[in-house]
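Bumping with the actual sequence this time:
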Amino acid sequence: MKTFKKTLIALFVVLIILQFIRPEKNMAQGDYVSTFVSETQPTPEVKTILKTACFDCHSNNTVYPWYAEIAPVSYWLADHIDEGKEHLNFSDWVNYVPKKKAHKLEELVEEVEKGEMPLESYTFIHQNARLTAEQTVALISWAKGARSAYPASVENRGEEEEH
């Protein structure tokens, strides 16, 4: 029983210490998705969907809830955001080549169609990020249209140039 008590106290001390060591916040200044918005031209409805369901984890600016200040949740959120930005970062849109932009929009369509995005762990707490059937259709339709603005044969250009 003494070992259990010591372990519990040690865990409590670690938890207290973690409250003072915070992960870096994902907070950009200014219009952090301006290039993405100007290039893909989402409708006001789709822009609201993106802001509500996507930008927190897939841009350089996150609106943090109150519980993000509490470790270990703060670490979990930081990791989750880093992973989300690794897959797609709307704030880095300016640095993506057209082929990558087209691919990222394709992936967006696939993930939303499969119901993989937004993540259940996100929508569990952020109820307003749950997509209705109409929002899903609007988002997918917009993404397919935006995808078509990028050269459709980007993947084939290298093959054509070789021949």
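The tokens above came from a reply further down the thread. The helical segments are 2-18, 34-40, 44-53, 73-87, 98-113, 120-125, 133-148, 154-162.
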